[in-house]
Amino acid sequence: SGAEPSGVRSAAEGRALPVPPRCPPGPGQGGGGGGERRGESLCNATGQHFDLTSNAILTFIYFVVCIVGLCGNTLVIYVILRYAKMKTITNIYILNLAIADELFMLGLPFLAMQVALVHWPFGKAICRVVMTVDGINQFTSIFCLTVMSVDRYLAVVHPIKSAKWRRPRTAKMINVAVWGVSLLVIMPIMIYAGVQHNHGRSSCTIIWPGESGAWYTGFIIYAFILGFLVPLTIICLCYLFIIIKVKSSGIRVGSSKRKKSEKKVTRMVSIVVAVFIFCWLPFYIFNCLLRLRPHRAHARPQGHV
Length: 305
Description:
There is one protein chain. By secondary structure, this protein is mainly α. It has one domain: Rhodopsin 7-helix transmembrane proteins (Rhopdopsin 7-helix transmembrane proteins, Up-down Bundle). Helix content is 70%, strand content 4%. The protein has helices spanning 34-82, 89-117, 123-157, 168-185, 187-192, 214-253, 256-292, and strands at residues 193-198, 201-206. It has a two-stranded antiparallel sheet with strand order 1-2. A hairpin with a 2-residue loop joins β1 and β2. It is globular, with a radius of gyration of 24 Å.
C-alpha cells in the first residue's frame, strides 16, 4: 500500500495544509553549541508564530467563502425554483452550477478545521465523502460551462434546427447526465481517498498504489485532458462559431445596433474564455511542476484535501 510521495498535494484539487517553515541548519549544527541552540529556539518560535497566524487567516478565509457562497448559491437556487419565468434553459444550467457549488461550500468547514487543527479529525468515511464532493464539484462546474457554451452555439448559429432540442425537459436530462459523467470521471478519487498518518498527524488525501508516483502523474494527465483541454477546446470552438455568425449577420444588416451587439458578444466570449483559463490553467501547471520537483528526503509530509 503506497502513499503518494511526501509533499505531493491532492491531485483532485491541489490543496494542502500549510507546513511550518523549517529552520536552516546552523554552522555548528550537531556540535551542540549554545549559540546555535539559542538561534534554533528563536527560529522555531518564529516559525510556530508564522504557522499559527497563516493557519488562522486561511481558516477565516475558508469560513467567509463558505458563508458568502452558501448565501449566494442558495439565493440563486431559490429564485430559479420560485419563479416560473426564471425557468429558462440557460437558468436550468445555472441552477445545476449553483447546486454543485452549494455542495462544495458544505464541505469547506471540514477543510477549514483541518487547516486550523493541522490534522484530519473526522475519519476515513467523511474524508472520502468530502473528497468525492470536492471532485464532483470541480468537474460538474467545468462540464456545466461547456454545456452552456454548446447551448449558446445552438441558439445563435442554429436557432431553428435546435428549437426541438432546446427545451427545459432536455436541459434537465442533460444536467443529470453531467452529474453522472462527473461521478464516473472522479471514480479514482472515490476509490483511493483516505486518511494518511505521518509523524502522529493524519491528513485527508488520495493514497495512490505504488511508490513511483506513476498513478499520480497519470491522474494529473487524465484530469487535465478531461477537465481542461477538451472543455476548453469545445468552449473556444462554440464561441468562435458564435462570433463568426454574429459578424456575418452584422455585415448583411449593416446597422450600428448590430455592430454594438457584435462587440458585446465578442467581449463576453473573451471574458468567459479568459476566466476559464485563469482559474484552471495555474492549477494544472502547479501540479505538473510539483510532480517534476525532486522530493528531498528531509521534506516534511504535508496534509491534503
